[in-house]
Specification:
Elements (H helix, E strand, L loop, with lengths): L4 H16 L8 E12 L10 E16 L4 E6 L8 E4 L17 H12 L8 E7 L8 H16 L8 H15 L6 H8 L4 E6 L4 E6 L7 E7 L11 H17 L14 H11 L4 H26 L2 H17 L6 H11 L4 E6 L7 E7 L3 H15 L8 E5 L5 E4 L4
Parallel strand pairs: 3-5
Antiparallel strand pairs: 1-2, 1-12, 2-5, 2-6, 3-4, 6-7, 8-10, 8-11, 9-10
Organism: Anaerobaca lacustris
GO molecular function: ATP binding; galactokinase activity
Protein name: GHMP kinase N-terminal domain-containing protein
């Protein structure tokens, strides 16, 4: 498979950086990993819900080649001030240490650390150059990077795993155990398994993946990502970590009473939900509000999945909007700039649904838009957002995305 024009432009930058920093990637491989767009359930992964989403065409490209040494040498065109990130296999800073807090190098360090901890023998180093155009916040840039690094190092070291789902666990461990980011498995799953033109359905009960085509006759629509231009900190520094602790706290409270649950997703019965809210709502209103979102989102999830299968994108969009209201009002994970974007596009003709994306606080919002409404959305955002948020007038962006494969490898391009 050949790179697109956009990919060729990225590769040209990579070649130039490789030359400038004396990294030998000539004749190597190019691995491209995607971003993701979650349709349901946002923040459901660490609460045990089923998941559904697609891969989207904002990417990380990494050109790499084994270098015949035990050194790993990488340069990112997105973080040029960090220079070449270089280390000997097996010699990385301690997990969650101050030495890694401010550098993107914490990701390759973490991959090295986790792979060795899990018993994988890395002996072959690589030279690599990376470049990405995934917005920071909402589209899983860190998960895409971890998946790319793991797969590329496995390839260079001729390592195979029995099940691809193990890659998801390894990528999550890099963020959880090495970096200290409390992410779930949604992002890694959607990036690794995404297929062009398909929705990816993940069932945590048996860790199965199912590809779901959209039903025939669906309205022609586009996925639009509305990057607010805000700089979102890592999940470990955000409201995301607070919400996860709150959900775990409610589960612990319920376990000590008559509700033997292992996660909030276990609460699917309306009568049980009502009983919990009645019993604990006055004492723990915030915790019960988090449950209210998860409970409602699970009910909507099955409606959304059936609508997708039926080609009813209008209902998919309406549920996407309902989820956004729940994330804003019950889960309280959104942010002012994210909601400004939603407010701007909500009444634009052709917009089927909109909400914040990803970890929360900052980053990007997203919308499902009829094809004929794309330009109207773009014009509305370009006019109204700088007026509402002048501090980000030169930083925001609007992306129109396609549904793509999560992982692609290109040979013969270097």
């Amino acid at each position: 498979m050949k790179l697109t024009q956009e990919g060729q432009a990225a590769l040209e930058k990579i070649r130039q950086w490789a030359k400038e920093h004396r990294l030998d990637v000539a004749g190597g491989r190019v691995r491209r990993t995607s971003s993701r767009f979650c349709l349901g359930v946002e923040h459901g992964d660490y609460n045990g819900t089923e998941l559904f989403g697609v891969g989207t065409d904002r990417f990380i490209w990494m050109a790499y080649k084994p270098n015949g040494t035990s050194r790993i040498r990488l340069f990112s065109g997105n973080f040029p001030d960090d220079g070449v990130i270089e280390h000997t296999i097996g010699h990385v800073p301690e997990p969650k240490s101050a030495a890694i807090a401010q550098t993107w190098g914490r990701f390759p360090y973490g991959v090295d650390y986790i792979l060795r901890r899990e018993g994988f023998q890395l002996t072959q180093g690589i030279d690599a150059v990376l470049y990405g155009n995934i917005p920071g916040g909402g589209m899983s840039r860190s998960a895409s990077l971890c998946i790319n690094l793991i797969l590329s190092l496995f390839d260079a070291n001729k390592i195979q795993v029995a099940r691809d789902i193990q890659i998801v666990d390894l990528a999550q461990a890099v963020e959880n155990d090495y970096i200290g980011s409390p992410c779930g498995k949604l992002d890694q799953t959607m990036v690794l398994f995404a297929r062009e033109g398909m929705g990816t359905y993940y069932n945590p009960s048996d860790r199965s993946i199912e590809y779901v085509p959209m039903g025939a006759g669906a309205t022609d629509f586009r996925i639009m990502v509305l990057d607010t231009g805000t700089d979102r900190p890592g999940l470990e520094k955000s409201t995301y970590a607070v919400r996860r602790r709150e959900c775990e706290e409610l589960v612990a409270i319920l376990k000590r009473t008559e509700f033997p649950v292992s996660c909030l997703a276990d609460i699917k019965d309306e009568a049980v939900y009502r009983k919990i809210v009645t019993q604990f709502g006055a004492k723990f209103p915030d915790l019960c509000a988090r449950l209210t979102y998860i409970f409602g989102a699970q009910q909507r999830f099955y409606q959304m999945l059936e609508a997708w299968k039926a080609g009813d994108i209008e209902t998919v969009g309406a549920i996407f909007r309902q989820d956004g209201i729940g994330l804003r009002d019950d889960y309280k994970i959104s942010g002012p700039e994210l909601e400004t974007m939603c407010d701007i596009v909500r009444t634009v003709p052709g917009v089927l649904g909109e909400r914040m994306l990803g970890g929360g606080d900052k980053g990007a919002s997203g919308a499902l838009v009829r094809a004929e409404g794309v330009e109207a959305v773009r014009e509305a955002v370009q006019t109204a957002y700088p007026r509402s948020r002048p501090d980000f007038a030169d930083k925001f962006a609007v992306h129109t995305c396609k549904v793509v494969d999560g992982v692609k490898v290109f040979d013969g391009e270097l």
